[in-house]
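Worked problem 6 (solution included).
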Amino acid sequence: MVRALMAEAPGLHVRYNRAEKELIGTYGGESSTIKYVGRIDAVRQSNEEDVTANIYVHESGHAVVYMILTGMVPLQLKSRVANSYAGGFTLSHQMDSTKKSLLDKVKIYLAGGLADEQVFGEENASVGRISDRLETSGMVADYIRPQGYDHDYQAVYNAEHYPRKMDWKVTDYRVEQMMRSLAADTKQLLLKHDRLLIELSEALNKLGRLDANSIKPIAEQHGLNVQIFSEGHLYITDYQSKLN
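Solution. The predicted structure is:
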């Protein structure tokens, strides 16, 4: 069981007996108990049921919106790991950067924290959204400032070198407006696919990890047309057919 824990083996289920300070693992139909002290508490913090339930929903939120917008199945979802942090949703496919894909990525990143709100209530939404919000704020600022995708702002507002330095404050309100609008759009996507979000979260809660072959049928049962692509697959517009 120790080897399974360290390898983050699929199908491993871990719970804690606080009174006896025991880690109880079930793997391959067998149960084992490990006494924990000191540093092992860091493992406990990443595996307690309330903590992991929050992570399951957060990561499932990312995955649901990812599938809706790209039609691709995440290669893996996980949140039970044998160290002091929980690893979850990652973009396992490459996304060609375009106006549309940048906005889609913002929604995918925002979806984790918004799923927290939807399932657990706004007052119980965790601060695990911080890195997602930092990332998306930068993406929206770039969308407006250097990339010129907003028709009302065509100058590069993050130009730094004097005498070309521009006033970022001119575009700050537009960045905030876009973030609010994209968050609202993402909320609607999650509300529309609420049952998929719940079922995916419950499956992750039961197994601790889901691969693409486990995720795909769940998504299809809820009306999504999704495909499995290998790691590193490039998600790109069909430029060739559009040219012809």
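Discussion: The mean pLDDT is 84.
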